[in-house]
Amino acid sequence: MTKTVEPLVRVTGLTKRYGDTLAVDGVDLMVRPGEVYGFLGPNGAGKTTTLRILTGLISPTSGTVRVLGGSPGQAQVLARTGSMIESPAFYPYLSGLDNLRLLAEYAGVARAKIDEVLELVDLADRAKDRFSTYSLGMKQRLGVAAALLKDPELVILDEPTNGLDPAGMRDMRRLIRELGSGGRTVLLSSHLLGEVQQICDRVGIISAGRMVAEHDVEELRNEQELVIRARPLESAHSVLRRVLGGDAVRLYDDTLRATVGPNRAAEVNRLLVEAGIAVSELRSTERALEDVFFELTTEEKAHAG
What SUPFAM superfamilies does this protein's entry cite (predicted)? Predict the structure, then answer.
């Protein structure tokens, strides 16, 4: 018998209102043990609000939320969770090291762990400098170090590469991949598609407060489409929409993209030729994740409007 692995995070029908503003609208979310889950969406989509609910910082208006088998904010849940939500907040007049010492004392963490996490985020050589002298990227790294102090089972990071230069972004992504491969579960939010594509196992796409899709990143990466150049382009677009369905065909400048497998290339070519359309190019390619993200978020914005 196959043992069912319970998700570490399960969210159902999550809604959050601020007066007349609906910030999160019926979100369903599931994070499995040992994966790096990317919560992807444009700024203002509802990512941070959702993460604040998961960490017990704010309460939902409606819906059910379970984290590590308990409710957000419970002591036993917080003890197994490390998080960095929005900009990390530390005492500006204390050094990075002293800020972590203070947090370790509150959390009952051994002092030896502080040196370990400082090395992990590459801040050991600046640990004795005041927090107020840190660059934005260094402040982000100290925030991640604080999230790792308790050696948590679940790590929740809100835009962890915000403010980092390209080298810092590379190092942070490497660190997150290592956390995932080291047995921890990581839930991170981002508005950067390339970031999620590089480091995440699964992705949930949120737009205008609604979860519009949830996919394995590898499945998205391997999705195929046909790229077609034909004249007259508008006639080709009309023919393919009628045969393949409106959702399967998209118009990009001087090309058409059809979300169908390469096994249908000959059929598509025949349909166009029989309609008197001249086909100059028809090839199969991997569908760009940028296109998937753009289409899903655009459709949801139109629906919300």
Answer: P-loop containing nucleoside triphosphate hydrolases (SSF52540)
Helix (H) or strand (E) holding 122: none
**Per-residue pLDDT reduced to its tens digit, 150-186:** 999 999 999 988 877 888 888 888 888 888 877 789 9
DSSP 70: B
Model confidence pLDDT, tens digit, residues 248-260: 787 777 888 887 7
Pick the CATH number of 224-286 from 1.20.120, 2.60.40, 3.30.70, 3.40.50: 3.30.70
Q: What torsion do the CA atoms of 258, 262, 265, 267 make, to the nearest 10 degrees?
A: -100
- According to CATH, the topology of domain 9-220 is Rossmann fold (3.40.50)
| Two tokens, residue 167 | 């080298």
Sign, CA dihedral 172-192-190-44, equals positive
Distance CA 198, CA 172 (A): 12
